[in-house]
Design goal:
Elements: H1 5-12, H2 14-21, H3 33-51, H4 64-78, H5 85-103
Helix pairs in contact: 1-2, 3-4, 4-5
């Protein structure tokens, strides 16, 4: 996972997390860690889908940018009803950034983890090794 409940609490506050995750009736008045973990897990899996195109997973370290994207996505996923405009814009920006990484127009600062190209895209030839002799060409032109 690319961020933690603590990261979300520091950025968005315990009150917001409590409001978004306390779904018990009657309300417990506390953050539901299971709900938070699910949102972070879902956001991290979505991030992996984009990063896998360009980087070997799992990442050896979590870049600050990926941590930030994960927080933006997780808080969006915690909203079950109306998503505030700021949270929605942050989520859209996170997705655009991930698409840019996947397309190769944006690169993470992770030395040595970008996978090698699968092939050069050129044409390959394979033959059984037989040679055409002068006698086989008699009668052609």
């Amino acid at each position: 996972m690319y961020c933690s409940q603590s990261d979300l609490e520091q950025r968005y506050g315990a009150k917001m997390l409590t409001d978004l995750t306390d779904r018990a009736m009657p309300r417990a008045g506390t953050i539901d860690g299971t709900v938070v973990t699910r949102a972070i897990t879902d956001a991290s899996a979505e991030i992996d889908g984009y990063l896998a195109v360009r980087y070997q997973l799992p990442l050896s370290a979590t870049p600050a940018f990926v941590n930030d994207v994960c927080m933006r996505m997780a808080i969006y996923k915690l909203h079950t009803n109306v998503v505030p405009d700021k949270i929605n814009r942050d989520y859209d920006l996170a997705l655009r950034s991930l698409r840019d990484i996947s397309a190769g127009t944006m690169k993470l600062d992770l030395a040595g983890v970008e996978p090698a190209a699968a092939s050069s895209g050129g044409v390959a030839f394979d033959s059984p090794g037989s040679r055409i002799t002068h006698d086989q060409l008699k009668g052609f032109g």
